[in-house]
Q: What sequence folds into this?
């Protein structure tokens, strides 16, 4: 009997105590158990706005605690400070005081982000520069700190510019900032899009609930089946590039190109789907980016909420395209360099961002001539091929652990490439190749086909939805890796 009590206590402690090695994310079984318990209570409280918000806040903060431990208090402190700053900025008539308050808010929010994300990066570079021996700090970066920091910055800036009315009730603002579907890895939903929905508090329609379920299932398929399975080979090849031929390294690059899309768009699908089930429209974050015919179009389709955030809060404030072509290109480069550094504290990410910045500048310079080229199937195919190849090439720097490793991969592809390895590779990694081909093919299914499938799922009888869900679970169990793999962007 005593042993049973101990077992019960151990189980409860695993549920309510933060485990650094097993943070709770959307692909953990514990989250889905808790969400299924959360949902009926949420539905009961939905019409009682204040009670519903307090309940969701409690669940969101617990979710953040299970993801990052006591750092959930940092989120609370940030929300409290920026809520007060926004009220002060709106009420003050003194221009200097308004600017000072905004500046302090930006320093506070960005200071937290810079400390946790870039302290060791600065220490490492300092050691390399002066041959110092400063030891790296033992820091745990709060999950999602980059995402909620950008959301709170956009709120304060929008209040300062008069684009959003400040929130009088702190509970409302904490609900917005801690809302768990978009807390860990986006989408970066802005206050001006979210607050009206929060204030209206409309019940979720049948289309929203089942449409959200469709997105959740699609996201799980992308992440837990496709991304996690093809990641197994990608990780091995990127971890030991000298042990593989150029053809095998090229396959790993193509594999990671599809892996990061399935991983991040899968998370976004789950987040947006959960929001829809709860009656909130969180927008769209990915729009088939690998269909793009140029790099500019790629950034209109990839991580849309980040690219528009960088445009509105970095590129345009720098001057955008209003101060001449040279200044526009400088602004583009600065924006993309910061975007690259936002993704990770390493120079490889800076190179990745710089590559995209250069490509955007080149495209804008060449656009007058490109627009004269007749749009035919061959020209569109060539445009797509060049864009896809360039994007996939830059993913090498995004994924590689160092410049040395990236150089080994690039060198291997160009100096040790033989098509003779193709049949052997397909034979040995048949399932991997099939998955890669399926992901690639599905990416080019017309948008209206996906919309029709979603509509048919919404209208399908309950037993067909259940069968679809059972098939999905079976696929997850069939292809699941030995351990739960974190979402890539939850680390940024």
A:
């Amino acid at each position: 009997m005593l042993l049973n009590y101990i077992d019960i206590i151990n189980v409860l402690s695993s549920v309510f105590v933060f485990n650094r090695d097993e943070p709770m994310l959307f692909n953990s079984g514990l989250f889905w158990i808790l969400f299924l318990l959360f949902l009926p209570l949420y539905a009961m409280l939905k019409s009682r706005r204040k009670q519903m918000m307090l309940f969701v806040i409690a669940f969101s903060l617990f979710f953040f605690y299970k993801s990052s431990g006591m750092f959930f208090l940092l989120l609370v402190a940030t929300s409290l400070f920026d809520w007060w700053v926004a009220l002060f900025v709106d009420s003050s008539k003194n221009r200097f005081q308004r600017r000072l308050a905004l500046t302090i808010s930006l320093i506070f929010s960005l200071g937290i982000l810079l400390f946790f994300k870039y302290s060791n990066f600065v220490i490492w570079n300092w050691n390399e520069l002066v041959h110092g021996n400063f030891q790296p700090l033992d820091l745990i970066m709060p999950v999602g700190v980059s995402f909620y920091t950008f959301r709170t910055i956009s709120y304060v800036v929008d209040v300062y510019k008069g684009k959003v009315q400040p929130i009088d009730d702190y509970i409302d603002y904490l609900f917005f900032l801690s809302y768990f579907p978009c807390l860990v890895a986006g989408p970066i939903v802005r206050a001006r899009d979210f607050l009206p929905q929060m204030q209206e508090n409309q019940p979720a329609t049948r289309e929203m609930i089942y449409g959200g379920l469709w997105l959740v299932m699609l996201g799980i398929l992308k992440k837990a089946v496709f991304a996690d399975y093809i990641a197994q080979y990608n990780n091995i090849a990127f971890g030991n590039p000298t042990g593989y031929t150029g053809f095998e390294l090229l396959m790993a690059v193509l594999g990671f190109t599809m892996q990061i899309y399935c991983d991040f768009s899968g998370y976004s699908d789950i987040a947006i789907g959960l929001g829809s089930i709860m009656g909130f429209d969180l927008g769209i974050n990915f729009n088939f980016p690998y269909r793009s015919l140029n790099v500019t179009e790629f950034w209109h389709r990839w991580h849309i909420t980040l690219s528009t955030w960088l445009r509105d809060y970095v590129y345009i404030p720098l001057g955008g395209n209003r101060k001449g072509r040279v200044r526009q290109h400088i602004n583009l480069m600065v924006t993309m360099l910061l975007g690259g550094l936002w993704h990770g504290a390493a120079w490889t990410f800076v190179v990745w961002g710089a590559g995209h910045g250069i490509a955007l500048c080149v495209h804008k310079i060449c656009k007058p001539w490109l627009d004269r080229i007749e749009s035919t199937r061959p020209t569109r195919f060539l445009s797509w091929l060049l864009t896809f190849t360039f994007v996939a090439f830059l993913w090498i720097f995004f994924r590689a652990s160092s410049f040395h490793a990236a150089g080994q991969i690039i060198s291997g592809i160009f100096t040790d490439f033989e098509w003779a390895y193709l049949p052997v590779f397909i034979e040995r990694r048949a399932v991997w190749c099939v998955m890669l081909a399926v992901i690639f093919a599905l990416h080019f299914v017309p948008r209206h086909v996906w919309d029709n499938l979603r509509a048919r799922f919404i209208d399908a009888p309950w037993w067909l939805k259940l069968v679809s869900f059972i098939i999905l679970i079976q696929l997850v169990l069939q292809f699941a890796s030995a351990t739960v793999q974190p979402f890539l962007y939850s680390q940024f």
